[in-house]
């Protein structure tokens, strides 16, 4: 299939956003943050993955991805973080880091004759990354609090999660990002977390790396 560079860039961005949606839902499932009852099986990249069907959770994920789509397309962000904390959000238990580096050509009018191959290659590396995520062991068993639970200690053990982004250091990205959104979702370096690489893959149009940071043992 023949595609222009402009179309290829757009499609790479769309597929990256789709992968992030799948990966975020899958991390929610493998970390057992919620009961399995709110997840549904679906087939993607020739793999069985799990999607959360809670409306509030899906709205949060969708709003986040809609905000970062144009930033990713402009290569203004290079890391997306999935952060697991206690109720004290400063106490990070685990953080997944997904680095996405699309590779572009300077001329948007360039014609590529191998479009089908490039798209299939993207799906293949996304599949490889999800397979490695499947090997992750949950950071903590599911903790459930009830409305009648008045024990503050139990409440502090409740697992929470949020999404974050890191702006590209080599560009003045901050001036192109809505300030309120950036302050809400900015990823902050934390020297108290250990770092483990889950998967790193390089392809013609995308370099992707997935890492996991855990709270260091004291």
Automatic annotation (TrEMBL):
Lineage: superkingdom: Eukaryota
Domain HORMA residues, every copy: 10-218
UniProt GO cellular component terms: zeta DNA polymerase complex
Listed InterPro entries: HORMA_dom, HORMA_dom_sf, Mad2-like
Pfam families attached to this UniProt entry: HORMA
PANTHER family: MITOTIC SPINDLE ASSEMBLY CHECKPOINT PROTEIN MAD2, MITOTIC SPINDLE ASSEMBLY CHECKPOINT PROTEIN MAD2B
Protein name (database record): HORMA domain-containing protein
